[in-house]
């Protein structure tokens, strides 16, 4: 097998012979763009909006805050532990797309352990960072207005999750990234990836948003967090008795989808 056929991942992992590779020769092999996933269907909205009229604004907001605090804390706790990301197929952070394309080739030439080590390190970094989200999420709940609460209660099955994204995503990224960066400093392969990914961007081998591994892991960690929060929200809407507090159970039961 010729060296140029080992593709971009080999550049990252074989630093001793990295300069011998022809990045331009890899463009044809790895140039196929990752297909844009289909847009999800619009989430259903509450089927019984008139039910809210039997609850005061204070009760509506209070019940929602109970449920959202519960959901946020549960999602964070589930991810902020060993294998919280790595052991959960729904949120496990894979290699960046440019490396995924070559992963099977790596395994055929006996380099699979490097891919596994890098994947484990990325997920461990996410697990270390995610506890930082709890304070921000709970803070967003406390600042929620009556209008926010009604919009969430009567909105789609992930309305609360979208509210959290809008109000906390930037701050969470700011908290996650330094922790991710510190974790990945111990991983030599991460440094090699960043060195070559910049060149890969100019050749169309690497998506710009994936050019820095810290940025990639931070983004994927947030995606995983919000996914698990969305699952908590859907579970409470589907089964209001899972909500914390009698009032929250009553309100969500009244507007059950």
Can you lay out the helices and strands and say which pair or pack?
Blueprint: H1 7-13, H2 27-30, H3 57-79, H4 97-108, H5 112-129, H6 133-142, H7 146-153, H8 159-184, H9 188-202, H10 213-238, H11 246-254
Description:
This protein is an all-alpha fold and 257 residues long. It has one domain (50-254). Helices cover 61% and strands 0% of the residues. It has helices spanning 7-13, 27-30, 57-79, 97-108, 112-129, 133-142, 146-153, 159-184, 188-202, 213-238, 246-254. The longest helix is centred in the last third of the chain and has 26 residues, at 159-184.
Shape: elongated
Radius of gyration (CA) equals 22 Å
- Fraction of residues in H or I helices: 55-70%
| pLDDT < 50 runs, ≥5 residues | 1-7, 14-38
Query: How big a fraction of the residues is strand?
Result: under 5%
Give the number of helices. 11
Provide the domain count.
1
Please trace the helix and strand order, writing H or E for each element. HHHHHHHHHHH
